[in-house]
Amino acid sequence: MSRATQRGLLGAVLLLGSWEALARGLALPAYTLPAISDIILATWQHRSLLASAGWYTLAEALLGYAIGCTAGITLATLLILLPPARRVVMPAMLAINAVPVAAWSPLVLLWLGIGMASKVAMVALAVGFTIFLSALAGFDRQDRRAADLLRSFGAGPIALLFRLRLPAALPLIAAGMRVATVRSLIVAIVTEMLGAQGGLGWIIYQAVVQIDFVQVWSAILVASVLSLSFFGLITWLEQRIIFWR
Amino acid sequence: MSSALAETAAAMPASAPPLLEMSGIGKRFGAVQAVQNLALSVQPGEFVTLVGPSGCGKSTLFNMVAGLDEPDPGGILRFKGRGCHARELLGRVSFMPQRDLLLPWRNVIDNAILAQEIEGANRREARARALAMLPEFGLAGFEKQYPHQLSGGMRQRVALMRTFLFERELLLLDEPFGALDALTRSMMQRWLLELWQHHRRTILFITHDVDEAIFLGDRVLVMTARPGSVKLSLPVNLPRPRDPALLTSPEFTALKREVLDAIEEEAMKSFMASA
Which fold has domain B4-93+169-274? Predict the structure, then answer.
């Protein structure tokens, strides 16, 4: 085990230990802070409910993430190939992006209903913008000398895009995709709280209404495990694919 | 054997038209006249080197010959005996910029075949051909390595291989050895001469280094300070193949004296202009 891993584990143990000691020692009520052991126990007891809710949320987040990434990269690519269109589209894009994503959720729920579609749409919107902006920044970072070299070999705009600009933009696109993993779950859960038929956000909302605070914490625990795993997976893929950095 | 190539090159104007011919060429960028009334010609098979004070418009000249920049109207540009626009030279001249500009996500072989890939060549055949050329470029066994795993000299050889594999009659090399240490540089120079003699291409070579210019070239062109034009065209009648011992011979020193005097004069001019 590496030194960094050891220290990380030590930090986690210390945090959880003091949480447990604080909750038990001060006999805090559950609505303030339940003991960590109680949360883990309750999570285990409700594992099938939490697992299905977790899958539900994860499915929304992954689907929205995939749509958002595809749309963001495609749009950025099109604007790079058509620079005049970029000047027309960018101000509107930045204006839409300036509104916090959560503000759109009541409208999206109204349009798409309280099923999965509205969550997927919200996640796609949030992820799409992140990826779109990082892809554009990545494309803009191309080396003019390298582009000149390829042009001297007779490369046209399409060859330049696939042989130079897209690979050169990959590190920034991947960094955007890494950040967007966590964002996708946050947006899915927040939207579920506003109206849903299942998922972790829905569980949290129901648990608060039923004054079951340990259940709230259980759902948070599951959400953070999902979020960390998704983040870890994309980070691992990033290191695999973008080996040259 | 002695100076056979230089003699062929000198004898050629009568029989064959120059591969590249420029006259009255100018290029202005905003308020800066980078190149003015520039004239030069390069014979097929000739190795021409170009020296000049920094900022004299050497790179502007190269960009025009590579087809990346259009000269201002009024000049004459002829390639293979036919007048043309600079942009028509895109894809017809093999250009190697100062930095190696290897693509970090491609391994040695795939960087070497980049130009052929852009031409639409079959990737597998291009790879096979490049693989067979690796030993000649001192890269045998390195085909799967990525640029960040190579030394500066090796990266430069990959870039040269990419330039050679793009089979065009005219090679433009912009200070290809500028970033290398002295020892690697002198080895690369001799290796480049062998390569040139073997492949029979025409080379136009920019450098800062007067020794390098004389050691490599059939002819040394000295550029004036900005606005750049050709001040001196000096034939180098030294025997080939060239040996490092040549660098200390009286003939070499005499040529060097002449080139240095011309450069010195221009450097003073540009120094006075900027002071």
Answer: Rossmann fold (3.40.50)
Q: Are strands B76-79 and B47-51 parallel, antiparallel or unpaired?
A: unpaired
Q: Does A154 touch chain B (CB under 8 A)?
A: yes
With pLDDT > 70 as the criterion, what percentage of chain A qualifies?
100
In whole angstroms, what is the distance from residue B271 CA to residue A90 CA? 46
Distance of CA A21 to the CA centre of its chain: 33
Interface test with B, best of A152, A164, A165, A242 (most B CBs within 10 A): A152
Q: Contact B101/A146, CB-based, under 8 Å? A: yes
Between CA B71 and CA B84 the distance in angstroms is 11
For residues A167 and B257, give the distance between their C-alpha atoms in angstroms, rounded to a whole number: 49
Q: In chain B, list all ranges with CATH 3.40.50.300.
A: 4-93+169-274
The Cα–Cα gap between B4 and B1 comes to 6
Whether the Cβ atoms of residue B226 and residue B271 lie closer than 8 Å to each other: no
A146 Cβ under 8 Å from any chain B Cβ: yes
pLDDT category at A99 given cuts 50, 70, 90 is confident
Q: For chain A, what is the mean pLDDT? A: 92
- Show Cβ contacts of residue A27 under 8 Å, excluding neighbours closer than 6 positions: none
The answer to whether the beta carbons of residues B35 and B227 sit under 8 Å apart is: yes
Residues of chain B with pLDDT under 50: 1-14
Specify the CATH number for A40-241; select among 3.30.360.10, 3.40.50.1950, 1.10.287.470, 1.10.3720.10.
1.10.3720.10
Backbone angles phi, psi at B30, to 5 degrees: 60, -120
Q: Do A167 and B105 touch (CB under 8 A)?
A: yes
In this predicted complex, what is the ipTM? Answer: 0.83
